[in-house]
Amino acid sequence: MARSRRQTRREVSEDEEEDDSRLQPETQGRDYQDDQEEEDAYGEDGDGQGQQLISQLAKKLVRYALSVESNRRAIKRQDVNRVVLGAHTREFKNVFSEAQLQLETVFGMKMVELPKQEKVTGAQKRAAAQKADKPGTSSTNTWILITTLDPRFRVPSILGPPKAPTRKAESEYVGLYSIIIALIYINGGVLPDTKLESHLKKLNAEVNTPIGRTEAVLQRMINDGYLVRSKDSSSGDEQIEYTVGPRGKIEVGEEGVAGVIRKMMGGQDPDIESKIQVTLSLNPKHAEPAITGASQAPKPRGRKRTHQQTEPEEAAEGQEEDEEEDEEDETEA
Amino acid sequence: MDPSYNSTHRALLQAFFAHTTLPTAHLPALLSSIHTAADPDRPTLPADITQPDIDASIASVNAAIAPFDYEIRCVHHQSSMSRADSEATYVIVNCTSDPSTQLATRFNADEVKFVRRVLDLMFDKMNFEGREVCAVRPSEALRVAKVRDSVGGTQIETLNGEGVGGGVASSLKLDQAERVLEELKQEGWLELSEAGFLSLSVRALAELGRWLVEVYNDPEAEEDEWQRIKTCEGCKQIVTIVSFHCERREQQQTTPCYDTG
Questions:
Q1: What is the mean pLDDT of chain B?
Q2: Residues B257, B253: Cα–Cα separation, whole Å
């Protein structure tokens, strides 16, 4: 208890030395906070220490989240318990909310829960229906880190694609998964592999891409959570299908897809906005933007596949032509 | 927290996370884009951004991220003879990092151990009193792709007292090792000199400096004793291109950066 008080005092004085110019408002704010903390500490023995423990663990969690995200891995509760919390796993909730606060105020980021994997095949749906009765399965306990900055800041001159391994390779990867995710959304949320292959063929990317062999790149997208590959054998023959993965839903989502379409078709088609509306709202169950809807996991998109054959098909065809042009532009440049 | 800390600082911080290193010359354009985004009605031009603006923004960010052991540092390339602000590079540094935590996210365990063997080659085998190379030719680095006791193993264990990250290291295939080196180069951890030597980049030195000193230097050495990792007397940055000190010693009056070696 006494230690924690000394600690906060020392922090204050260090800050004063560091930062004389903005001393006034800051120290006032801090003093108030300190008083509060001290009161708490006096009130109950060990409470101050508990607070300190939580803020320490929260910092560890923030660092963990940043390092995990830099490699597009998800933050899993199990790993957090093991790597960050150690013996204090029952503090998870407190530590998590404190870390969330720190991420938002200092870094302008937050952890968003990944939506549940949608059930594509009949067997998965049946399993899900059985599970649905059980309480406490609503959370995936998996999060990714996203920026909370205003979209105005999310422009290439400020936040370009990360340099991992290089800016160019990263941009190419982002471009490829954005297009594939767009194709899946336009196709009604599910894309059979034969169709994906024919789309990729039109992009001249069915065997190789600028960042490696197509198969390896698709596998990377699956590992990173942009795509999900599943087998559906309900109709007799086995069919491989692609759906949008949890990270894809949050990072790209419908807003991102609309952006891709706008960029590609923009200027050519005055009705583009209404067409985007029609195309994307054909999936009524995920009409809201993915980011805000992330905490309540979107419901499984159990679409009957007969609906897909109409409008989105045309839109997809139109878009492909554009993609081809784009691709050519890139290679020329 | 500083009440003036706002979205512009957060955007600057995220830009650093995305870029990791930014030359001073890029900062006016970056900051002006950020300020324009924050206040679109009053566009800010790169020319409006002064060095004190840059310093103030970075100081605010640093004050906010210090508790998380991150820091934006202003560093100069050790071979650069000028210490002017315009020649500096800003690097975001994870202050408590070592190669295994830094690389563990991108490379598998065997690859990380290979990088450790390359570092040992740089700072142990190729770095002794009177011939402080602190760099390797790519061909020499690839030779440690294969685990051999005579090259690393036994010597390393006595050096660190802990072995190479625990567990038995397996050899890397040559093309795998080549890919690791290539990625490290592309990500700006290693740089290849004109003479064909791989050495640690500004960013790697800023990030791994503390770890290098801990691992390769003898903490109980006398003050004047030869140490593997040397720091500049003037600016406290790590110096690995020791041959420079000969030239610099004669210029001590004009250049602030010279070596203790």
A1: 77
A2: 10
List pLDDT tens digits, range A249-304.
Answer: 888 888 888 888 888 877 666 777 777 777 776 554 444 444 333 333 333 333 33
Q: Are A311 and A278 in contact (CB under 8 A)?
A: yes
Task: State the nearest Cα–Cα gap between B40 and chain A, in angstroms.
Answer: 9
Q: How confident is the model at residue A164 (pLDDT cuts 50, 70, 90)?
A: low
User: What is the tens place of the pLDDT at every residue in A273-284?
Assistant: 777 777 776 554
Q: Where are the domains of chain A?
A: 163-332
Q: Which CATH class is domain B110-249?
A: mainly alpha
CB contact under 8 A, B188 and A163: yes
Which of B19, B94, B101 lies closest to A163 in CB terms? B19
Phi, psi angles (nearest 5°) of residue B130? 95, -20
Q: Is the pLDDT of residue B166 over 60?
A: no
End-to-end CA distance of chain B: 42
Distance to chain A for B52, nearest Cα, Å = 14
Find the closest chain B residue to A60 by CA distance: B68
* pLDDT number for residue A6: 43
> Which residues of chain A neighbour B4 with C-beta distances below 8 Å?
22
Instruction: Report the distance separating Cα B255 and Cα B80, nearest Å.
Output: 10
Pick the CATH number of B7-94 from 3.90.930.60, 3.90.1150.220, 3.40.50.1820, 3.20.140.10: 3.90.1150.220
Q: What are the domain boundaries of chain B?
A: 7-94, 110-249
The whole-number average pLDDT for the span A24-31 is: 39
Count of A-B CB contacts under 8 Å? 97
Does A153 contact B34 at a Cβ distance shorter than 8 Å?
yes
Cβ-based neighbour number of residue B181 at 10 Å: 22
